[in-house]
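Budget justification aside, the reviewers requested a transparent look at the raw inputs and outputs of the sequence design task funded under Objective 1. We therefore reproduce one unedited record. The lines immediately below are the structure tokens for a 474-residue chain.
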């Protein structure tokens, strides 16, 4: 029997858990669950490599719930990098615990501290929180960490990125009777491995070969396009979405989230922006609406998107390429979840070229360059018109290189320059270097005149020949 054929019922789980899982309709554990749950149930520390969408929440949730009892005292704490993730983890744990009577409490910033304190005082067994607020609540005496036996770090690499490691260490030190530590991460930078060493006792590593990041197996494409036409490509991608598709568009800044939300709206494509400055309430509403399939398109920054766990996302678009290579993997991990098909599109301008190269090399990915998708059948007009964009072909001195076919051997650099200047009536300074080859010449033309000069050359003949000007890529 292949390991994947193992069923939840084979484990003899605690009855409340077993019932909850079966009424949810889950039958087979995912890979990470299959590997992590048995060792965690034995009480071993576990370091697990898992991305969002792999079923990691239940991988640590099931053993934690099984070990907890409804005593009203915090026995387990799960730390998450974002409020959204904490909410999602708590939601999953809440239904998983079924009728066991366990109280699962979230503790995260940005919400009423007194309300959270009252809830904590009413008794809770499992805490799911973000580091800052957990520390705060513990310092204020609302949260007692001293009886915690089970500690879990979710998305450890994100915690590291967000600078939470000192906080995590502080929390860790408040747990003298800790028995088990579980750590989950999509990637394993050295600091995460060091932390695993420090926090854990002879852990079992459950991860793919070579500590490589798990790159989701989804179709990835890149479109080479100047900044000013990224919106045109995005319009085409949106035009190709089916009724059941949902799209997550990534930009690198909050400002860009807003600009894009606004501009898409102006072109009749409704998109919702999501970034750290939106209130917790608003973000939860957006997530809810995404899950219900009401919201189809969300524009987000990496940080804001971390908590997004929506199975219906079928398109991820990198409007901007991320600065670090791991973010790319996190981004594309938002689609193709639970085996659904998904596609990731990167819009690559001149400035993004290096980033895409680095991403492809780091993760050994094949991200083919393709043309923007065609408009779907029956759609005549682009949602956003394509514009002339010289930025991609202009050198740092403002010159565009244009190749001309020359049929006559008598043409020299000088005569060609004179001809262009006289035909187009432009100052000679608008022309840069000219290079002659046997049947062609390359002429540099200043970007301000390029479009016009090309037009003129297209309409005229030199010594009876058409010159067929072609703009050269840099
Ligand atoms: P996660 O990686 O924990 O965010 O889980 C991704 C999604 O898969 C969530 O919606 C889970 O509820 C769901 N899920 C996790 N494990 C299973 C399973 N064994 N069978 C079916 N769905 C699952």
């Amino acid at each position: 029997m292949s390991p994947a054929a193992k069923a939840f019922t084979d484990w003899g789980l605690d009855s409340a858990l077993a019932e909850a899982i079966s009424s949810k309709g889950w039958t087979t554990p995912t890979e990470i669950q299959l590997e992590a749950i048995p060792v965690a149930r034995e009480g071993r520390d576990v370091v697990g490599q898992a991305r969002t969408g792999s079923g990691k929440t239940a991988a640590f949730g099931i053993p934690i719930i099984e070990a907890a009892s409804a005593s009203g005292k915090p026995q387990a704490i799960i730390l998450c990098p974002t409020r959204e993730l904490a909410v999602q983890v708590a939601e999953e744990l809440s239904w998983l615990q079924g009728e066991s009577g366990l109280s699962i409490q979230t503790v995260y910033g940005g919400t009423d501290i007194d309300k959270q304190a009252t809830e904590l005082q009413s008794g809770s067994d499992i805490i799911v929180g973000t580091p800052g607020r957990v520390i705060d609540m513990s310092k204020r005496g609302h949260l007692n960490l001293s009886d915690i036996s089970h500690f879990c770090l979710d998305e450890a690499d994100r915690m590291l990125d967000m600078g939470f490691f000192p906080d995590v260490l502080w929390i860790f030190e408040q747990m003298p009777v800790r028995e088990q530590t579980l750590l989950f991460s999509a990637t394993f930078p050295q600091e995460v491995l060091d932390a695993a060493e420090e926090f854990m006792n002879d852990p079992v590593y459950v991860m793919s070969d070579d500590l490589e990041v798990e790159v989701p197996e989804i179709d990835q494409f890149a479109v080479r396009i100047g900044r000013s036409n990224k919106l045109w490509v995005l319009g085409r991608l949106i035009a190709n979405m089916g009724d059941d598709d949902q799209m997550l568009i990534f930009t690198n800044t909050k400002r860009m989230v807003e600009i894009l939300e606004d501009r898409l709206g102006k072109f009749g494509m409704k998109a919702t922006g999501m970034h750290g400055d939106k209130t917790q309430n608003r973000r939860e509403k957006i997530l809810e609406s995404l899950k219900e399939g009401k919201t189809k398109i969300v524009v987000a920054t990496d940080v804001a998107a971390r908590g997004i766990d929506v199975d219906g996302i079928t398109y991820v678009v990198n409007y901007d390429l991320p600065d670090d290579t791991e973010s790319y993997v996190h981004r594309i991990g938002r689609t193709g979840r639970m085996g659904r098909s998904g596609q990731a599109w990167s819009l690559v301008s001149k400035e993004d070229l290096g980033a895409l190269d680095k991403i492809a090399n780091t993760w050994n990915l094949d991200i083919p360059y393709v043309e923007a998708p065609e408009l779907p059948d029956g759609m005549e007009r682009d949602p956003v018109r394509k514009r002339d964009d010289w930025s991609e072909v202009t050198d740092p001195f403002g010159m565009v290189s244009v190749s001309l076919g020359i049929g006559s051997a008598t043409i020299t650099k000088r005569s060609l320059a004179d001809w262009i200047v006289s035909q187009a009536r432009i100052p000679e300074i608008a022309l840069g270097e000219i290079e002659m080859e046997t049947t062609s010449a390359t002429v540099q033309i200043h970007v301000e005149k390029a479009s016009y000069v090309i037009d003129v050359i297209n309409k005229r003949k030199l010594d009876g020949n058409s010159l067929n000007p072609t703009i050269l890529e840099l």
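The CA atoms of residues 120 and 429 lie 75 Å apart. The chain is about 35% helix and 15% strand. Computational costs for records of this kind are itemized in the attached budget.
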